[in-house]
Amino acid sequence: MSECFGRTGTVLHIDLTTGTATDEHPDDAVYERFIGGRGLAGHYLSPFADRDHTDPDLPLLLFTGPLTGTESPTSGRGSIVSRSPLTGTVCDGSIGGGLPTRLKKAGYDGLVITGRSQTPCGIEIDDDTVRVVETSLWGRDTDAVLHELEQRLPEDTSLACIGPAAENGSPLGSVAVDHRHGGVRGGLGLVWAAKNLKYLTVRGSGQVRVHDPEALDEAREAIIRLTMASPVLMGRHGFSHWGTGALFDLINSRRMLPTDNFTKTWFEHGGAVDAPSLTALYKPRDHGCLGCHIHCRKIARDGRSLPGFEAMAHFTALIGNADPEAAMEGVDLCGRLGLDPISAGSTLACLREITGKDYTDKTLLSTLRAMAEGGDLALGALNLARACGRPETAMTVKGLELPAFDPRGGYGLALAYAVSTRGGCHQRAYPISHEVLRKPVATDRFTFSGKARIIKLAEDAIAACDAMNACRLIFLAAGLEEYAKAMTAVTGRDWSVQSLLEVGERTTVNERRMNAENGFTASDDDLPERFFTEPGRSGGGVTVPPIDREAFLQARHNYYVVRGLDENGDPTMETLQRLGLDR
């Protein structure tokens, strides 16, 4: 192996069945093909991607990237990856806080966790000391677990854990990281629970070696200059000022805010629950991931996290709730129970449409508690809707509940939802950037023209971002050109926009290949029928028309062509061979 810059050269394998830990030193070629993060984790998942979440051999993966732990802006990220218990797709979650950086500084590029402990356990990493320990914390909520761990561990330790929802078998179970930085979707918390893994702690005192610190300083300054000039990120109406809740008014005014379970596209009470209203009520302070200058998270005076845009929209407009405190309590309870707030809010909306009953403050919280205890509610919107004989009320793609952007208001968004490898997800291609925020260039949001190629390129760029482990939000200001320079400075290898895009393409096609092996076809690259048959009703006499299905199918076909897929949505042999994924 060549000299390591931007990586430790070590992947830690932990077998919970035996309680043993072993080091692996991957070949240079593996790093060059997948870089790290989501890309490298997909490489390790691939041989086991057909395993169920209850199979001890299914790996739970946590990987950093070359930029993690360096001076590169917004590089305190990591990727949690496995097969989703909710959808059966490949699934990843981008996590922040301090955990990824401390894992890297402990000497590891990634963790591969397999096996199943006979009793509830925790993993404790302190530099090169790795322990699998029995724990009595099973059954405790995430706040209680993290607070107890903080009492006995050094201050510079990062913590992650699951809550009661995952322990009780809910595929909506998420992962809490350093109190403020969870948000892992797809039920990956249930993979932890199936392994009897309650928590992970990491402390690292090492340093990440950088090949050319001066060149990294130059790349860093260029990225920060672009960030500071970005109204979306740093302006007085941007994320740094308001948090991601800054999007609420904008998305509502564009008539694409999902309301009443996606039957409407405008929330008439939006002014009571938008970012300025929350700021006036809760007087929040700034908070961000380790090493980030944007500080897009906000903490209320009472210590609760202010919900981000997605969570706030789903606990207000989507379920017909105009009470900001009820939304705050609901999202906070999701965090403590270890529930994904997007999926939980969507399941609440589905239940409300089926029963016709609105939520009170008390019934909102009691329903969430029931969701974390098991039964049909715990299984997500699609399973609930099917159990009630109302499958049309589940607003999901591949079983994953949709986030807070209505696809009738953006046709690139509609295509991105449908073809996303993890299900209903806007972050695989983030078309909101060009269709709403006009970055890097504006596109017509009510046409499919050109969107197939745009979505494909955006997927590749974001997959490359996830492999480097930079924050996706930074790409509202900077781009791969700037990050290629940062990567070159850190690693000593000559990276370009094209070489990064190739890694992103390999990552995405690898995920589609794994999904195809698990039975996913073109029929799964689709949207709920509601979006093709019902207009988005809103105020002011504005009606957002339904999506034309034939135009959508043509756009999906065009995407398959530019992505190198066959008519069933599977990667062609030519594509697999070109990317070195044939086996």
Set down the secondary structure blueprint.
Elements: E1 11-15, E2 20-24, H1 28-34, H2 37-45, E3 60-63, E4 78-83, E5 90-95, H3 99-105, E6 110-114, E7 121-126, E8 129-134, H4 142-152, E9 158-161, H5 164-167, E10 176-177, H6 188-194, E11 197-203, H7 213-228, H8 231-234, H9 239-242, H10 247-253, H11 275-282, E12 285-287, E13 297-299, H12 309-314, H13 324-337, H14 341-355, H15 361-373, H16 381-387, E14 396-397, E15 400-401, H17 411-419, H18 432-435, H19 451-468, H20 480-491, H21 497-517, H22 530-533, E16 536-537, E17 543-544, H23 549-563, H24 573-578
Parallel strand pairs: 1-6, 7-11
Antiparallel strand pairs: 1-2, 3-4, 3-6, 4-5, 7-8, 9-10, 9-11, 12-13, 14-15, 16-17
Helix pairs in contact: 1-2, 2-19, 2-21, 7-20, 13-15, 14-16, 17-19, 19-21, 19-23
